[in-house]
Design brief:
830 residues, mainly beta, Immunoglobulin-like, Porin, 18-stranded antiparallel beta sheet, twelve-stranded mixed beta sheet, 9 helices, 47 strands, elongated
């Protein structure tokens, strides 16, 4: 009998309005005489776990009469409830709460929240001089809302054992099938002055899909997706967006507050405060806040979600719970932190349930630690962190794993051994990354095997590279291409040697790379995360008849550090020849016969890069950045010298700075600032050829209505501002509201010039700037005015696409330029 009383039971159900039958979100659900409670989600659903001794459950919500129901002890069950609205009768006039206009003035709920805001500085943990704790973090993902038909699919017959690990306790109204689990145990240290933090990861355990998914990148992606939520910050990063905290300094202007009742939370008498957005479509939270009923005005507990009308992709439901305890009578610190998100495309369709649970214990407050602990990077991992055995985890976990959670590691290991799984993953990786894995080597990228341009004509290419299964220390890569019009072979052969015990795909990279290449290059085309001979870029606007042929030898040393500072040293020798309509024609010659067939470029470069707290996912070809609020700074210095058998002497200095800004509920702004200067006398191929785009794909870092090789400079400065409003305007327009569209606006400005020493119209010994067959100039210098283009657009079209209308605002007198154009790009965001 005693054993049965300790059995966990699950009580779930739906709470609706007794009159309208509409679901009631954020209704309180409490097991009477226990410390166990929860709230309903936006669909009025709840799920609560309790010991078998519980016998009554209470349902409460603002403006509704409370309801108490009996439950059967020791048995999981469904309890659905209808709450009746509270009606107050005064002198035969019926008044329903919430009908009158909401006002901040003389509102006791607003006065209470203003006191919470006024006391933030003393209640937030950052007000302490020192604190430290042990942190246990568990992140799990599971299939949700899957049907019985899924189990019966022929393609899943060999995976039936997976369905033995179903969990029915995590998500109200749905069984889930765990597919991923990650656990981390760490020690965290904080010092107020000088402000420093340090996290030392002692143990790390995760489901691994090594060979298919970048585990390190997966970890970084999860950090970004499940960032720490600090309600005492004005702005909270959540699901790649910025949400205004319900206790932000400006929160009373964006939120409504209602005092519901008083409640005991772990022996502390608290005011239960309901908060919700004034505008349901703004990036704001809604939920309950439990504020301690004394002069401290500290938040004891908070339960938050987001409104279903918010412009947020792929999210069906959100539940955030945080609880604070007083530690050593010195401050209120977070002890429980849980974020649950139900991801999916449709409301009732299959999705992904993700949950991050963090617990904190062994707090020490205002105890001074040795300053050496704060030296180095903010987050470090012990060398043996990934090697902790099951016994260690059983002892050190803050709470034991459930049966289904324990089964995840075993089930996924079994899944990876099924040939059908490996075949499916290989097909997926081919579609996503363009590579087909054959064990020790892989071929690709397949989207470059065929392409077309007017100079090379039909271009066929085939290549591949070795994988870490061949060697973690050394990588070989090669391809061979042929153009059927220029009848030239192109090739690449390179090898990279890792100077660490990890592969060249594992951060931080320390490597030496050696390569030889014979390839073409469109002057001014600089693409992001796309190869230049990608088949999708074969169609271009305007004339695409400028090409450079480069025969290159290059050696490069890359050294990255844990703090995301890196340097690269390289030597590059290139023999460059003109192609298509380009000629290297000196100004003191008039005949095409006197054209120079090639120039020799021999350079030494040093590149310094600093990207604090950078996060990225390492793909097969590129690192996909995970945006954050920190800047990225890059400085490059290049020297070309006749001593190195270069045809010219020059120095080239380039600086770039990029940063994302979050103006709270107005979305986010990406800013890129660049500047460059060339010292020396050089022909136009060695000047800065500004990034142009003649494809129909919108390129963030390029000028989308500039022609290839249209502008050159030896000194320049540029500014690129791209702002996404995240639906701030469209969400308030009835017709657009349901489409979940988002507004974007961009402005790009480039100002530069060419000194007299590099101007072929003034200086001899240089090449004439390119002209078309009629002698009309096609390449210009930026002398009198900046190049400017601006765009407005709509993103989140079908949740994946962005379309911009781009307007060119200067140099419209140039030949073969478009003053306006439409560009599109793929964009994934929450």
């Amino acid at each position: 009998m005693c054993a049965q009383n300790n059995v966990d039971i699950v009580i779930k159900g739906t709470v609706v309005d007794a009159e309208t039958k509409e679901p009631i979100p954020f209704a309180g659900v409490e097991l009477i005489n226990t410390n166990t409670w929860t709230t309903t989600n936006v669909d009025g659903q709840y799920s609560i776990v309790a010991k078998g001794t519980a016998n009554k459950i209470r349902f409460t919500c603002l403006s509704y009469n409370p309801v108490i129901k009996s439950i059967v002890q020791g048995k999981s069950q469904i309890v659905n409830v209808r709450l009746k609205p509270t009606v107050v009768s005064i002198d035969e006039v019926v008044v329903k709460p919430g009908r009158k206009r909401y006002k901040n003035k003389r509102n006791p709920a607003v006065e209470l929240i203003e006191n919470v805001i006024d006391n933030k500085s003393k209640n937030r943990k950052e007000g302490l001089d020192y604190y430290q704790y042990e942190k246990y973090e568990k992140i799990q993902f599971a299939l949700s809302h899957f049907s019985e038909k899924l189990k019966q699919r022929k393609s899943l017959r060999k995976f039936q054992f997976v369905f033995d690990n179903v969990d029915s306790t995590k998500l109200a109204g749905s069984k889930i099938l765990p597919v991923y689990l990650k656990e981390t145990l760490s020690d965290f240290y904080y010092r107020k002055s000088p402000k420093s933090t340090k996290e030392i990861i002692k143990a790390n355990k995760m489901v691994s899909f090594e060979g298919y998914i970048d585990n390190q990148g997966m970890t970084e992606s999860l950090k970004y997706l499940y960032q720490d939520i600090n309600i005492y910050d004005n702005d909270i990063s959540f699901l790649t967006n910025k949400f205004l905290s319900p206790i932000a300094n400006s929160a009373p202007g964006f939120y409504k507050y209602y005092i519901q009742d008083t409640s005991m939370v772990k022996g502390n008498k608290c005011v239960k405060l309901f908060f919700s957005p004034r505008n349901k479509t703004d990036m704001l939270f809604q939920g309950f806040m439990y504020i301690k009923l004394d002069s401290s005005y500290v938040v004891k507990r908070i339960e938050m979600s987001v409104n279903k009308d918010i412009n947020l992709n792929w999210v069906k439901d959100v539940n955030i719970i945080q609880e604070f305890d007083q530690i050593q009578d010195k401050g209120w610190l977070l002890t429980t932190d849980e974020i649950s998100i139900d991801f999916g495309i449709s409301k009732n369709g299959m999705g992904i349930f993700g949950q991050r649970t963090v617990s904190y214990k062994d707090y020490k407050v205002n105890e001074v630690v040795n300053d050496n602990i704060y030296k180095g990077v903010n987050i470090v991992q012990n060398k043996d962190a990934d090697e902790k055995n099951a016994t260690f985890w059983d002892v050190h976990r803050h709470q034991p794993l459930s049966k289904t959670e324990k089964g995840v590691y075993t089930v996924i290991d079994s899944v990876k051994k099924v040939p059908a799984f490996r075949r499916t993953m290989n097909i997926m990786m081919l579609l996503i990354s363009g590579y087909r894995d054959f064990g020790y080597f892989e071929i690709g990228p397949v989207n470059t095997f065929y392409s077309y341009n007017p100079i090379e004509g039909v271009r066929l290419r085939f290549g591949g590279r070795t994988t870490p299964k061949f060697s973690k220390k050394i990588n070989f890569e090669s391809y061979l291409a042929y153009g059927y019009t220029d009848k030239n072979y192109k090739y690449y052969l390179g090898t990279t040697y890792s100077l660490t015990d990890k592969t060249i795909y594992n951060f931080p990279v320390k490597s030496i790379k050696l390569s030889i290449q014979d390839e073409t290059k469109i002057p001014g085309q600089e693409l992001q995360f796309v190869q230049e001979d990608n088949i999708l870029l074969s169609i271009k606007r305007g004339e695409n008849n400028k090409l450079l042929y480069n025969k290159t030898f290059k050696i490069e040393h890359l050294n990255e550090f844990d703090n995301h500072f890196s340097y690269a040293l390289s030597y590059n020798y290139t023999r460059q020849s003109p192609g298509g309509s380009l000629f290297f024609n000196p100004v003191n010659y008039n005949s095409a016969v006197d054209n120079i067939p090639y120039i020799n470029i021999s350079e030494v470069s040093a590149t310094l890069r600093y990207a604090p707290h950078e996060q990225f996912y390492q793909g097969k070809l590129y690192r996909t950045p995970i945006p954050n609020k920190y800047p990225i700074l890059q400085l490059q210095y290049t020297i070309g010298s006749k001593f190195l058998h270069n045809d010219y002497n020059y120095h080239n200095l380039r600086l770039s700075l990029s940063k994302r800004f979050y103006p709270s509920v107005l979305g986010y702004t990406d800013v890129i600032l660049e500047a460059g200067k060339i010292f020396g006398k050089v022909p136009y191929p060695l000047l800065t050829i500004h990034r142009a785009n003649q494809t129909y794909s919108y390129q963030i870092a390029s000028y989308n209505l500039m022609n290839f090789l249209e502008f050159v400079s030896d000194q320049y400065v540029s500014l690129n501002v791209d702002h996404c409003f995240n639906g701030f305007i469209f969400n308030k327009v009835p017709l657009f509201k349901k489409l979940k569209l988002r507004e974007v606006a961009t402005c790009k400005m480039l100002y530069g010039s060419v000194n007299n020493s590099n101007n072929p119209n003034i200086q001899t010994g240089l090449f004439k700037l390119p002209v078309d067959e009629d002698g009309t100039p096609t390449t210009y210098t930026l002398e009198k005015k900046p190049y400017i283009e601006a765009s407005v657009g709509v993103s989140n079209i079908f949740k994946f696409f962005r379309v911009d209308v781009v307007k060119r605002l200067s140099y419209l007198e140039h030949s073969d330029v478009a003053s306006i154009g439409i560009r599109a790009r793929f964009k994934f965001d929450f």
